[in-house]
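Key idea: predict the complex, not the pieces.
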Amino acid sequence: MAFTISINDQAAFEVLFAGPAGPTGPQGPQGIQGVPGQGVPVGGTTGQVLAKVDGVNYNTEWITPQDEYAVWGGITGTLSAQLDLQAALDGKYSTTNPDGFITASALTPYLTKAGNLTGLTDLALARDNLQLGTLNSPTFAGLTIQGAGANVAQLTSTALSLNHTGYGQFTIQPSSGITFPDSTVQTTAYTGTASVSWGNILGTLSSQTDLQSALDDKYDASNPAGFIDSSALAGYATESWVNSQGFAGVGYVQANFYPLVDNPSNFTTQAAVLEGGGTFLNRIACTSLAGSAGLNIGIGGTSTWATEPGDLWIPTAGTNLNFRDGNGIARVCASTTSGNTFNQPQNVDTSNVLPALRVTQRGSGNALLVEDSTTPDTSALVVDASGNVGVGVATGYTSTSKFEVVGNVKGTTLSTASGPVFSVNSIVAHSGGADTNDLLVTIGGVNYRIGMRPA
Amino acid sequence: MSCTNHQFKQGVTFNGAGTYTTEPGWPADLTGVTIVTALRDARNKLHYLDVAITSPTTFTVSSNQTQEWHPGTAYWDIQFFQNTTEVFYSATVRIEILPNVTPNKVSNS
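Result:
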């Protein structure tokens, strides 16, 4: 390796680096023997080492080396020779109490605290510090506990009172019990042996946290409404269990009782009572109780809703009991307690030996009244209560005749039994003779009058 | 070890420019190399010169204190060390310091 260098713009020259060191030369001749040295002192034992006695050249001695860590009990020598330790101990020395005993004055702060409770906050700790034993509890003839600038509790020979800046004063006195600051909550504590009755307990239920907690425990989150479900009834709602409870006779079901399953108790007679509708698979016998009907189908059905044959309904504000027959046709049931109006032809078709239609009028009204579109009709067919028949007579007709026609009578043959054929009531007065009863006969459209006198 | 002879006038500002040429077994260039150089004058007094590496292969050596260099035969070499462990010396350059006659009125300090 080399480098070239130029000094002050002179011609550059090459500078080589120093080469490696040459081989070691031959060993030289042995030198002359030197002056014998001082040597080490005689003596010494195993393990001892040579140490300087002082600063004089060659002044040495054999000593035993110390352990690396001194051990109490193994340290020999004189204590006072340990100047640092002596100084440390001297620092503990008190010239005012040379013997180092604890004086009464040193105990004064503690004895004062034990005898004066001012500033003492932990009575139990003070008791333990004084070694009074755990069975020794402090007894006070009276006690005042001070809070922030005011007495918060006082115990006297006659009362214990607790003051609270926000809630007022609570007082306990043997003569008057417990007095609360808020009279609306409670003013007198329990004073006798009588128990408190439900209904006499005032306040808010939710404020009774223990009771609220107990009630909350009854709450089932999986059944928030608290209904009794089929699993809760298992073992109880069987027929044998009901019989065992003495309910084998007539039972009563409260209103709005809806079993949740089709046959919850394995009753022999299969039946279902469901909120959304159900089917009884056997004859249903109903009987009336005092003051109520034996069966009520409710009001509000319509023909639109009642679509199945056998449906029975009464519309809202309706007057008819309706049913849907076996062909699914809506029908109106007749009423025996009030009049019915049928707006469709009614047929009586029978082969019975008894009258096909029997009308028994026990009152004073007509037994039969046939009107046209006008009602009351003045030309109706009437059978009165006595069985008299009027044709073309007014509604409400009554007569002493068995048959009366107001209007023309057309017949093919007139057959009569024995006795008078006709009874003519009309009388015609005559100036030339006695009055006659005239029989007016129309023959071929010409009227002929036949006068007759009583025979 | 070779030794070359050169002349230098006392009091003249010393400016040297060096170019490093590597060889097998030596550092490839002056990267990581520290250069220290000194001149020992005829009265065996040591004078250190200022060194600056200007590129991986060039460096400068300078001194404006050459008035203190006593006339006579002086010896100058350059020390290279790398990583503070390997030390190399250049060959010693013999420089004849020529005395100056005219007093220097320019203060160097």
